[in-house]
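Anyone up for a design puzzle?
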């Protein structure tokens, strides 16, 4: 390892929710609030952190993201203990360490937000999804629109940085509704939004209903119209569309996610968490932890699925993640990480994509122009 510390982020997965949403295929289980193993989970995560101590040498911690699941269900004292353990495990911690916690409006109180702030959290990401009661009911959410707005306002009052998750593509959703939701969210003082299209995942309740012909979904064109409308609304606010699903006011980008899209090293902790660390040019190791929360709590050794990534896998990942962003994929950085020229072996595909206007190279950066983002998946697939 070089003498310069490698910038590294940490993702902590909290694998429980108050209720499983019918569209969600994340690794999470429903649990009663009284059954939550707050301290035991903190201990298990800290045990895993200790077992990974050698991997953390020579690294500088730049961000921590508590995701899930619903980490706002985790007792602030247990979360704080975990946070302290993580910062203490690194030789160096970045001066502007970004610490984000994902929250649900139904489990975020003003008191909770204040305790999280006091614990060292500086950013909340709140899953409001919509500010319309019929859409929230369709999505099976536990909160209504009043609670969603209140949660955003309470969070803004306590935290320096707040992001909201929005979903679009619910049946019957209009452009006006989406536009009004965006304007209302911005009015609360929130300065970052992640806007995702509702997708029907096979292994979810929506997946089963869809297969049985019992779920109405929005037609493809409606998704495209909503995506473009969201883009216009955020542009009117002066926010940057800095990644396909993410919009930010000036300097409000998620540093944790940018690090990930740039192919940065990350450590995953907790049940079902994924981590990936480079171990020299052209080689990286990715792991996925035991997904079952009970088994994760009980295990005393590191048990994870391991995948070794070679130069080609590293290049593919860099294309898949980097081309999702406004800045694009950095060719020189990818060459250093992959140990070979990322263009090698795909010269013709790249040339064709550039001719069609689906791709552009500006200096060291390869990017998909924003007016082609609706076709992004196909564009990237053609480069594989
Ligand atoms: S609250 Fe979030 S993570 Fe939990 S089930 Fe619903 S969508 Fe999934």
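Challenge accepted. My sequence:
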């Amino acid at each position: 390892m070089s003498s310069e510390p490698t910038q590294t982020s940490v993702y902590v997965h909290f694998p429980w929710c108050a209720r499983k949403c019918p569209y969600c295929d994340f690794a999470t289980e429903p649990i009663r609030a009284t059954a939550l193993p707050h301290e035991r989970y903190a201990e298990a995560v800290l045990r895993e952190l200790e077992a990974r101590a050698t991997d953390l040498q020579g690294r500088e911690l730049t961000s921590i993201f508590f995701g899930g699941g619903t980490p706002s269900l985790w007792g602030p004292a247990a979360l704080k203990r975990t946070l302290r353990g993580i910062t203490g495990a690194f030789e160096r911690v970045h001066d502007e360490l970004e610490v984000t916690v994902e929250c649900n409006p139904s489990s975020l109180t003003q008191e909770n937000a204040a305790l999280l702030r006091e614990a060292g959290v500086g950013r909340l990401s709140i899953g409001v999804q919509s500010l319309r009661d019929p859409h929230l009911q369709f999505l099976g959410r536990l909160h209504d629109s009043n609670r969603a707005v209140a949660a955003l306002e309470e969070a803004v009052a306590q935290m320096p940085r707040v992001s909201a998750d929005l979903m679009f593509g619910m049946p019957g959703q209009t452009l006006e509704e989406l536009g009004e939701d965006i304007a209302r969210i911005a009015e609360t003082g929130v300065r970052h939004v992640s806007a995702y299209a509702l997708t029907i995942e096979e292994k979810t309740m929506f997946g089963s209903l869809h297969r049985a012909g019992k779920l109405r979904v929005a037609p493809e064109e409606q998704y495209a119209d909503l995506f473009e409308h969201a883009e216009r609304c955020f542009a009117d606010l002066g926010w940057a569309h800095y990644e396909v699903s993410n919009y930010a006011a000036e300097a409000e980008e998620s540093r944790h996610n940018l690090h990930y899209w740039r192919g940065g090293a990350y450590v995953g902790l907790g049940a079902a968490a994924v981590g990936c660390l480079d171990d020299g040019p052209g080689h990286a190791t990715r792991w996925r932890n035991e997904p079952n929360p009970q088994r994760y709590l009980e295990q005393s050794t590191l048990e994870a699925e391991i995948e070794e990534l070679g130069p080609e896998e590293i290049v593919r990942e860099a294309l898949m993640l980097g081309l999702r962003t406004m800045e694009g994929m950095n060719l020189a950085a990818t060459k250093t990480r992959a140990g070979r020229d990322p263009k090698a072996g795909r010269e013709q595909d790249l040339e064709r994509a550039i001719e069609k206007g689906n791709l552009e190279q500006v200096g060291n950066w390869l990017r998909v122009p924003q007016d082609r983002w609706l076709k992004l998946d196909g564009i990237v697939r053609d480069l594989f």
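A detail worth pointing out: Residues 261 and 321 are 5 Å apart (CA to CA).
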